[in-house]
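so my prof wants the structure for this chain in the tokens format not the other one, which i didnt know existed until like an hour ago. anyway here's the sequence
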Amino acid sequence: MVEFIKVSKSFGAIKALDDVSFKVEDGEFVFIVGPTGSGKTTLLRLLLGEFRPSSGTIMFNNQDITKIKTRDLPKLRKKIGVVFQDFKLLSERTIRENVEIPLAIHSVETNKWEERLKTVLELVGLSDRADLFPSQLSGGEIQRAAIARALIVNPDLIFADEPTGNLDWETAEGIMTIFRKINEQGKTVIISSHHKDLIAKIGKRVLTLKEGKIISDTKMTGKTRKEKQK
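here's what i got, hopefully its the right format
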């Protein structure tokens, strides 16, 4: 599915990623953790083709995306649904209209829109909120709308950048439950997060970045931090 092979990325004298190698298999659920500036966002932008690595190879679905032509980037991005930390919903559009935007961008036939919209809104629990505007929703509901938008074109991979960063524990746990459902349906899920207790409770694979390097690759036990201390 996704493989970084000795990938480095520098911005002038700053090395954002330094000889990073890892592989995520089809259908895996993986967390990427690390302090601010550790390289998590750079990793995402490399995967989307927004940056080219300074060295190394990035494979996605058996394709070397470091060599992909600019005109082919939309095809790549259709296969990767991204949930951004700041949501990126349009305030003047309803939730329905926001979620439908990728369908228009990727020229999906309009006769397929309603069925897809119904499916993703049911999954995230927003069927009764479709005609409301972002300002009329809670923070957790807005995040769920952003997840629906990422899913609407049926991508192979979902990458979420700090999806629970500004949410309380109960709401964050609900968001993670949605990602688990998405993963159980066969999607590969990669989440960048600082929410250590929630990550520990879910019990998935965790890649830890520090100063642009992967310093650990572990499988969590699915216990909370308090349970581990007992």
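also thought this was worth mentioning. Residues 224-230 have pLDDT under 50 and may be disordered.
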